[in-house]
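Exam prep: given the inputs below (a chain plus 5-aminoimidazole ribonucleotide), describe the expected output before reading on.
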Amino acid sequence: MSNQVDDLIESLETEAEIDRDPDDTPEIGIVMGSDSDLPTMLTGGSRPGAYDALVDELGFGELTDYDNPPDERFTFESYVISAHRTPSLMYTYAETAPARGIEVIIAGAGGKSADLPNMTASIAYPLPVIGVPVDEKSVDSVIGMPVGAPIVAVDAGKSFNAALFAVQLLAGRYPELHERLEAFHEAQSTNVAEMSRELFGLGATGFHDRY
Ligand code: AIR
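Solution:
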C-alpha cells in the first residue's frame, strides 16, 4: 500500500476521534471511483451534477479543511476512492463516516465493476448510501445488492438527483433544508411555467429562434 493511501487512512481515523461541533462537520460525503468521474459526480459533464445541486441550488459549502470549515451551515466533502485500487481506503472511509459527522454518503463509480457504491453501503450500514452509476454500464453493478444489504441509486450519471435525495434525507432532521428543497421545487416549477407561456405565445418556431 502506498504511503499516500496510508496517510489518507490515518487522517480519516484521526478525524474520527476528534470530538468536533456537529455544525462544523460535513453532513454529506461524496466519493467517486476515479477523478475521471468528477465531471459526472460533481460538476455535471453534459448535465448539472451534485455540486450544482448542493452549492448553487441548496446553499451548501464544500469543506476542504476540517480545521477551517466554510461559513455555510451545511457542507459536503469529496474524495476519490477506488473499491479495487484502494480497498482499504474505501473500508476506512465508510467505517469512519458516522464518527466524522457524515449523515449520508453519495458514492459513484463507472464501468462494469462499479463496486464502490455497494461496498460502501455494506460497510457504512446503517448509514444511508446513494449510488450513482457513472455510466450505463455500471447500473447493474451499483443496484445489484442482495436482500438485506440495501442501497438506493439514481439513474446513470444523475448525481444531481443523488444530491437532492441526500438533502431530502437530511431534511427530516433539519427544517431549514426542508424549506430550501421546497424553494428549489417552486423555482423549478416557475421556470417550466414561464417556458410554457413563452412557447405558447411565440409558437414553436418563434420560441426556437427567440435568442
Ligand atoms: N473504477 C475505479 N476503481 C474501481 C472502479 N470500478 C471506475 C471509476 C471510473 C472507471 O473505473 O469509477 O468510472 C474508470 O476509471 P479510470 O481511473 O481508469 O478513469
